[in-house]
Specification:
Layout (H helix, E strand, L loop, with lengths): L2 H11 L4 H8 L3 H9 L6 H11 L3 H6 L15
Amino acid sequence: MNIGDAIRDAREAAGMTQAELAERAGVARCYITMLERGTKVCPIPTGMDIARALGIPFAALYEESEGGANNDTGRTDR
């Protein structure tokens, strides 16, 4: 899972639309769309604003996108 997937999952769990999240985070709706699709990189300050708007800790966005089966790189040399 990547950061965009984590944002989408948290937004949907909060029952928010992209437009509602964008307004609360102070960004454009199309920016949320691009983050969720993985076509934009999320800078840390923006990620903090998004997490705050979602009512979750900032680290939760990154915990979802790291480790376990969610981060399969296909490497077998570990």
